[in-house]
Amino acid sequence: MDLSKLYRPSSLNSYQFIAITGLIMSIGAHLILHFFAPQHRPDGFNWLYVCWTGLYIVGSLINLFGKPDEGHHHH
Hints:
mainly alpha
């Protein structure tokens, strides 16, 4: 089992990449709302972190235990 598939950017699958990008964007939005509109944060905003973490875990399981593709062979 290659654990570098959990952290090396070139080894991430699309689910992991989307989850990390979503997490970074959510943190940025959270900071903007915290400093510029502290009273206007939407209800349930923190559930985004749970969703991104869940997506990353699912993507990691697929990446670690999924069967590798044979790829496309052009003849």
